[in-house]
Design goal:
With 399 residues, this protein is of the alpha/beta class. The protein has 16 helices and 12 strands. It starts with a helix and ends in an 8-residue tail after the last strand.
């Protein structure tokens, strides 16, 4: 925090200053800083271990900080920001926000020539209240907690749903991370390795329902991060450039209106118009699987511009096995995965939390045996089984 203080002293600023000392700022450094300030016009109030930083920020008309998280927090609280950078690699980000009118970039500590004029620039800013007011306004508009929505809108505006390069041959829409490998990993790999354009939609976070009462929030967050990392590694190794992760709460899809889930996937179908869709089976034990099927079937109701040829449901070990329903899993479509079985098993190990010891159906041996069983059922070495729910023989020449 010494750099902003010395800068304010150099530009002869007069007025109260809130000085927040971080955990790494020693008592000796604080003593030196206070001594250096003796005789200056600054009226400094020092803080440590601040519990309510938001209130403290809101009391300020401006903040002078190193560019980063604190700068974003000040913007979110409608406070004008004057920022400097410690390192050269931070400069592009700081200059971008300055170009957006959200802050004033003062200079970089690794560039002595810039730091020489830091006080002059700070003085000019402090002497222009209208400029500071506009900075605060623009910063709040940019850092408003709706970043993900803004990015999604930008991407949607950049990408036209009508462009051929957005069309997919195959789309897998499943409830949880891991379903794509446990239920149909061999078929997914077969489509990708054949050069088809393949996409993946995962609707649920796959973790939240497994939280124990004794688990702290950090434990849950770590589990979510682990599962998210496993999904990322899986799609990277499979080479899936098109995938979505919506993060509905695990085993709580029934807490959402079905319409909400439908509306989350309808834009995906509209943008990519897949020919083949795979989703969870309607008779599964897991409520999320059943709701996923209902949402997909509804979102894929026949209409203009649709390219759908085939809609399949997949089996997921344990959930499909243990379901008691009017819709038992009775496969009528089988896919040869002999050439992809080992790769599927290797990929499944990424989801270590989903695996169990043999003779559990989700053991690696159980998954291998299932593929061999379905293979024997239809005269193949290894296969995956599906239920074909809809098939439309389209005239492709008229697309």
């Amino acid at each position: 925090c010494a750099l902003p203080i010395y800068t304010l002293m150099e530009c002869a600023y007069e007025g109260p200053v809130h000085v927040v000392l971080g955990a790494g700022y020693s008592a000796e450094k604080e003593r030196i800083l206070r001594k250096r300030m003796d005789g200056s016009a600054l009226s400094a109030i020092f803080y440590r271990d601040v519990r309510d930083m938001r209130s403290l920020m809101r009391q300020s008309c401006a903040g002078m900080v190193a560019f980063g998280t604190t700068a974003y927090e000040l913007m979110s609280q409608n406070v004008a920001v004057m920022a400097y950078t410690h390192y050269e690699w931070q400069i592009p980000s700081a200059k971008l926000f300055e170009a957006l009118g959200c802050c004033i970039y003062l200079g970089c500590a690794e560039k002595p020539d810039e730091m020489q004029s830091l006080a002059t620039r700070a003085r000019d800013c402090l002497a222009a209240p209208a400029v500071m007011h506009e900075l605060a306004k623009r910063g709040r508009e940019m850092v408003d907690g709706k970043g993900a929505k803004k990015v999604a809108s930008l991407i949607e505006n950049m990408v036209s749903a009508e462009k051929d390069e957005q069309l997919l041959d195959v789309l897998f829409v499943l409830a949880h991370p891991g379903d794509e490998l446990l239920g149909c990993g061999g078929t997914l790999l077969r489509h990708v390795r054949a050069g088809e354009k393949v996409g993946l939609v995962i609707l649920g976070d796959g973790v939240s329902s497994r939280r124990k009462e004794s688990d702290e929030e950090a434990v849950v967050m770590a589990a979510r991060k682990e599962l998210r990392t496993a999904l990322q590694k899986a799609v990277d190794r499979i080479c899936l450039p098109t995938w979505y992760y919506f993060r509905f709460e695990d085993n709580r899809f029934d807490r959402h209106d079905l319409l909400e889930i439908i509306q989350s996937i309808e834009p995906v179908f509209k943008r990519h118009r897949p020919r083949i869709v795979y989703t969870n089976h309607p008779g599964d034990l897991n409520i999320d699987h059943r709701r996923t099927f209902e949402a997909v079937v509804t979102a894929l109701r026949p209409g203009p511009g649709q390219r759908l040829e085939s809609l399949f449901s997949v089996e997921v070990p344990t959930s499909t096995d243990w379901g008691i329903s009017l819709h038992p899993f009775q496969p009528n479509w089988f896919v040869d995965i002999h050439a992809h079985l080992e790769e599927k098993l290797n990929l499944i190990t990424l989801y270590s939390r989903e695996l169990r010891e043999d003779p559990h159906p989700r053991s690696l041996q159980g998954i291998r045996d299932r593929a061999l069983q379905w293979g024997r059922f239809c005269g193949l070495n290894a296969a995956e089984a599906f239920v074909l729910h809809r098939h439309v023989a389209r005239n492709t020449a008229n697309e």
